[in-house]
Amino acid sequence: MSDIDRDEGGKYTVKVSDEEILPAMDHARTPVVTAVDLEAVLPIGGGAVRERLLDLHDQGRVVRKTVGSRAVVSWRTAQGEYDAPDGEAAEDDPVFDLPTFESGASDVSATVDEYVADSIAAESDPER
Predict the structure, then answer these.
(1) What is the largest CA-CA distance in the chain?
(2) pLDDT digits (tens, 9 = 90+) for 50-97
(3) Which of 35, 39, 62, 104 could be cross-linked to 56 through a Cys-Cys bond (beta carbons 3.0 to 4.6 Å apart)?
């Protein structure tokens, strides 16, 4: 359960465990939550909620997604599921086990104009 302590300056600090945050997400009325949603049901402020959601994301227990210029939604991962942080891939992702192939020339960008011109010429010149 939550407990309230005083910090070195005498101000109250509220500690909320992961075991309180995660069930609050489960009991939300929507499949995703914002820090504001959790702030309304937990005894900590929005900044603290955001920090805790970032920590849970780093642990792989919560997924985050930016859905607008500033809005971020979060949802719980399935048991045992891990989503790498945005822009990163999990090293154990099975996609990395697939074989790779080469098709020959690796850089046709230097001659793409030539390919396009030949294709257009072939379509317009029936004798080609």
Answers:
(1) 90
(2) 999 999 999 999 999 998 888 899 999 875 455 555 545 555 556 556
(3) 62
Q: Indicate if the alpha-carbon torsion angle 8, 9, 10, 11 is positive or negative.
A: negative
Cα pseudo-dihedral 30, 79, 41, 10, rounded to 10: -150
Q: Which helix (H) or strand (E) holds 12?
A: strand 12-15
According to DSSP, the β-strands at 3-6 and 62-66 are unpaired
Q: Is the pLDDT at 5 greater than 90, yes or no?
A: no
Structure tokens of 107?
């850089």
Amino acid at 82: Y
Are the CB atoms for 33 and 74 separated by under 8 Å?
Answer: yes
C-alpha atoms less than 13 angstroms from C-alpha of 95 in its C-beta half-sphere: 4
d(C-alpha 22, C-alpha 106), whole Å: 48
User: How far is residue 48's CA from residue 19's CA, in Å, rounded to a whole number?
Assistant: 15
d(CA 63, CA 84): 9
Residue 51 half-sphere exposure, CB side, CA atoms within 13 Å? 8
Q: Which domains does the chain have, with CATH numbers?
A: 3-124 (1.10.10.10)
